[in-house]
């Protein structure tokens, strides 16, 4: 699949790049995508949720009533879960939600996500660019020229470019990240991928090791 390379003014440069079929042209594996997205979202969870059980609630341990003859259950003390203000039975406790996925599974998930974007024609290839001074206005102009300003866009850069990141960080529907940090969730969450030429080379190298 060939795509024309654009400059930051949205004009064709006359060059074309061929998307690697082994990365952008595979048969997507939906189950692998599910696993990778599930792992990414699980890793974002803090896992600090906590509720108090009956032994942790502050309250008297005095026996509320006699053992028999009350006509009801033996409720014990005021911290009983059956009473208002008592402890919670089997409540949430702090835990780690992270789990492991094999490297080959994660690579296949990234290839599947990129292949979906290629099928949807949601990939824009732009020549490598930088911004001299951090300005959101300049970045918005680039997005308008590329006709992605009204879409949720993910920009992939080959290396850290601080001014580009600073110019884009205030835009709600825009994210800038390194091609080496690419993951299936970010790709699927975006409406369109804006990939620089050198980022394409990085993606090919990383996913075809």
UniProtKB/TrEMBL annotation:
Residues 44-78 are annotated as: Disordered. Pfam families: Ribosomal_L4. GO terms for cellular component: ribosome. InterPro entries: Ribosomal_uL4 (IPR002136), Ribosomal_uL4-like (IPR013005), Ribosomal_uL4_dom_sf (IPR023574). Keywords: Ribonucleoprotein, Ribosomal protein, RNA-binding, rRNA-binding. The keyword rRNA-binding applies. It comes from the Bacteria. Part of the 50S ribosomal subunit. Belongs to the universal ribosomal protein uL4 family. Forms part of the polypeptide exit tunnel. This is Large ribosomal subunit protein uL4. The lineage of its organism: Bacteria, Pseudomonadati, Bacteroidota, Bacteroidia, Bacteroidales.
């Amino acid at each position: 699949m060939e795509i024309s390379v654009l400059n930051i003014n949205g004009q064709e440069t006359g060059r074309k790049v061929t998307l690697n079929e082994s990365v952008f042209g595979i048969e997507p594996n939906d189950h692998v995508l599910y696993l990778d997205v599930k792992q990414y979202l699980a890793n974002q969870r803090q896992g600090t949720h906590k509720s108090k059980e009956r032994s942790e609630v502050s309250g008297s341990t005095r026996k509320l009533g006699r053992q028999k003859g009350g006509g009801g259950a033996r409720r014990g003390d005021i911290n009983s879960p059956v009473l208002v203000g008592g402890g919670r039975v089997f409540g949430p406790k702090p835990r780690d939600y992270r789990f492991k996925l094999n490297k080959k599974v994660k690579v296949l998930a990234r290839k599947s996500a990129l292949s979906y974007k290629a099928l949807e024609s949601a990939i824009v290839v732009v020549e490598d660019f930088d911004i001299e001074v951090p300005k959101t206005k300049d970045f918005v102009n680039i997005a308008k020229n590329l006709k992605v300003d009204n879409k949720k866009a993910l920009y992939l850069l080959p290396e850290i470019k601080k001014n580009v990141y600073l110019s884009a960080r205030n835009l709600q529907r825009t994210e800038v990240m390194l091609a080496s940090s690419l993951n299936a969730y970010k790709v699927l969450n975006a409406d369109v991928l804006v990939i620089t030429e050198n980022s394409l080379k990085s993606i090919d190298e990383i996913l075809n090791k």
